Amino acid sequence: MWVKATIGAIPLDGFGIRGREPKTRLHGFLGILLIGLPGSGKSTVAQALAERFGIGVLSRDRLRESMFPMGHGAPLERRAAFRALLLALEISILLRHPVVIDGMSLARREDREALKRLLERFDAPWLGLYLDCPAEVAHARVLARRLTAAEGIAESTAPGVFACAARFDPVEPEILRLDARQARERLIEEACTRVRTEAERLGLLSASPTPAG
After folding, report:
1. What is the mean pLDDT of residues 72-82?
2. Apex CA 65: angle with CA 61 and CA 70, to 5°?
3. What is the pTM of this model?
4. What pLDDT score does 11 carry?
């Protein structure tokens, strides 16, 4: 069985969820949907949120790699991984573990609506962040990353940025827009501020205990 899960502040590896011990933790469930083109900074923001707030990262691409290690990112593989992501999200809701959705653009309204229907079925709070980035800028970032030796499967098999932009459905008004052209540090801080504001509104913030000794 490919799923290997460890529950708690720590990654559910088989579900593509990962995180580190944070100074501030979300006490209860919050689902964060990251929307944007490849190269817009979704994975950067997701990792920053994981480290800042102890949020698990649920990645469709990592699920797909685990399910189809010999695959090539075919549409059927991506759809199967998305179904697995929905199951992992449902489990996270039931366990009250906050998660951020990464590893896909969520360009299709159909996919965004599927996630929202699941969240709303359980009356689970969620926050949508749209990393608004011109296709030219995102494309240049992806090309730059592909020149590095650290390139991974998720990037090398990602759909073309311009093709993704061409089929990007208009984003719903309740989704918050972040200017993804700004510097990495500023984008991270803005995303963290948005999450903190929503978590405070929901009464989810709590400080992690300081280790003794």
Report:
1. 92
2. 140
3. 0.83
4. 41
Mean pLDDT of 184-209: 91
The answer on pLDDT for 48 being more than 50 is yes
Contact 180, 44 (CB under 8 A): no
* Planar angle of CA 86, 113, 191, nearest 5 degrees: 80
* Cα 57 to Cα 8, 20, 105, 147, 149, distances in angstroms: 13, 10, 15, 26, 24
Share of residues in the chain with pLDDT > 90 (%): 73
Residue ranges of domains in the chain, CATH in brackets: 13-206 (3.40.50.300)
Residues 155, 111: Cα–Cα separation, whole Å: 20
Give me the residue label for tokens 């685990």.
Answer: 66
Mean pLDDT of the chain: 85
